[in-house]
Amino acid sequence: MHSVGLVLHPKRDSEPAVNAVLGWAARNQARVFGIEDEIRRLHCAAVAVTAEELGQRSDLVVSLGGDGTMLRAMRLADRQRAPVLGVNLGKLGFLAEVDVIDLPDALSAIDDREFTIEPRLAVDAVIGDQLVTAFNDVAVVRFPGHPSAAIALRVAGQPFVSYAADAVVVATPTGSTAYSFSAGGPIVSPGVEALLVTPAAPHSAYNRGLVLSIRDSLVLEILPGSGLLAVEVDGQVSAQVCAGDRIELRPRPGAARVVRLGRTTFYERARRKLRLADSAEIPADSPPVSAV
């Protein structure tokens, strides 16, 4: 591994983690790249590059922050060769793999090829002549004070169902634990290649979501009577749509590659992060199934 690219959280203290990467790189004759605007505030020895160059020139992209920073790092690495390592700064996340204290050992393990790759699905949304990419979700959301989102789903070229709701969320498996989950959607393993459609606060008798194969085409059609809607891509407003507009969703498998060192599983991270609890009807002292 000859080069490492850094992606920093905009507010959290990342200096100890940056110093750990720089120290490892100095001992292993590797170059460290950082986005100019981000590394300027740390006055560190990383080589300043543009965001586009970071993904192109790095053998490994290291995200220092939380899940939001990791999603940004995945977008920078999209269509590039570099896998992405998530380093947790602060709150436990789903995507981060190591803490700062473990960072030098993790870099050595990656350098020795003692890791696995977890491919992550992206979804490209075509809105008019605009194309945007999400690794978590694309949500079509009503503005406060405006009428509900009235949206028809066209699946595999055929009308399927229409929703009147506060929002309709199209999520990847990565995003199944984010907005979609809060709207009642299922938790989906990142190993599954599918899209989830989940209505948020639907105003109709049919209030169920939908799980689609990545081989099924999906188009959202904004119906007459719908209010003005915001299109949020990984939580950031990217466009506005209204009645008559269409949004085409195109899943793209393996768009980013996340480094895993085998220290935790997706289900362990999900249980901790979401604070999942057993049913109140199950006695706390009941033995696990494996022990019976």
Polypeptide structure, described:
By secondary structure, the chain is α/β, with parallel strands linked by helices. The chain has two domains: 3-115 and 261-273, 3-Layer(aba) Sandwich (Rossmann fold), CATH 3.40.50; 121-253, Sandwich (Tumour Suppressor Smad4). Helix content is 19%, strand content 38%. It has helices spanning 15-27, 36-39, 51-57, 67-77, 103-111, 179-182, 266-273; strands at residues 3-8, 31-35, 47-49, 60-65, 84-88, 98-99, 116-127, 130-134, 137-142, 149-155, 158-165, 167-171, 194-200, 210-213, 218-222, 229-233, 236-241, 246-260. A six-stranded parallel beta sheet has the order 3-2-1-4-5-6, with helices on both faces. α1 (15-27) runs parallel beside α5. The longest helix is centred in the first third of the chain and has 13 residues, at 15-27. The mean pLDDT is 92.
Task: Provide the fold topology.
Elements: E1 3-8, H1 15-27, E2 31-35, H2 36-39, E3 47-49, H3 51-57, E4 60-65, H4 67-77, E5 84-88, E6 98-99, H5 103-111, E7 116-127, E8 130-134, E9 137-142, E10 149-155, E11 158-165, E12 167-171, H6 179-182, E13 194-200, E14 210-213, E15 218-222, E16 229-233, E17 236-241, E18 246-260, H7 266-273
Parallel strand pairs: 1-2, 1-4, 2-3, 4-5, 5-6
Antiparallel strand pairs: 7-8, 7-18, 9-12, 9-16, 10-11, 10-15, 12-13, 13-14, 15-18, 16-17
Helix pairs in contact: 1-5
